[in-house]
Design a protein that fits this description.
Thiol Ester Dehydrase, Chain A; 177 residues; alpha+beta; 6 strands; single chain
């Protein structure tokens, strides 16, 4: 089940945090609970993605995206993710999640997140996110205008542009057999 109570707790904890610039970093702290574990008694890889939501959604609020979504009836979806898992996270261990927007192109907004424990990065994710309306994807330029911003997209890091290029070559739909 989705951790709605944990998400509500994050919004409550960060309710008085100052707004962030669009590419600012939101930092949140979490605990790996027994229900977050896989059979090997470590943080489940799928649950990791869910816990990253607990950093990404308050980030969206602090940069003003949630208000723009609500005022226009827009939605937010994930259109891709690449994750590196490097360190185990075990039950009752505390982690810090660092979340930030690293840029956008004509369709997508790119978000970087890292989960840190004891000064080491346990995992790192690159998300391709899209704002949607009834007609499909809303161009990031329209999203920025709705947020009251007149921002030019910062140049995406080379590793991000390489991932975008690799994704463009990936077959879709995938092979069925």
């Amino acid at each position: 089940m989705y951790p709605f109570l944990r998400l509500a707790k994050e919004f409550y904890i960060h309710r008085k945090d100052p707004p962030l610039p669009l590419t600012g970093t939101h930092v949140s702290h979490h605990v790996c609970w027994p229900w977050d574990l896989d059979p090997w008694m470590e943080l489940n890889n799928g649950r990791t993605l869910t816990l990253l939501d607990l950093g990404r959604l308050p980030l969206a609020k602090r940069v003003g995206l949630i208000a723009a979504l609500k005022s226009r009836g827009w939605g937010l979806t994930m259109a891709g993710v690449s994750v590196r898992y490097r360190r185990r996270v075990r039950v009752f261990q505390r982690v810090e999640i660092r979340s930030r927007c690293i840029g956008w192109d004509d369709k997508f907004i790119y978000i970087e997140q890292g989960m840190w424990r004891n000064g080491e990065c346990a995992n790192h994710a690159l998300y391709r996110s899209a704002v949607t309306d009834a007609q499909g994807i809303v161009a990031p330029g329209r999203v920025m205008a709705a947020m009251g911003l007149n921002e030019t997209a910062p140049p995406l890091p080379d590793w991000v542009t390489a991932w975008i290029a690799a994704e463009a070559h990936r077959p879709w739909p995938p092979m069925a057999d």
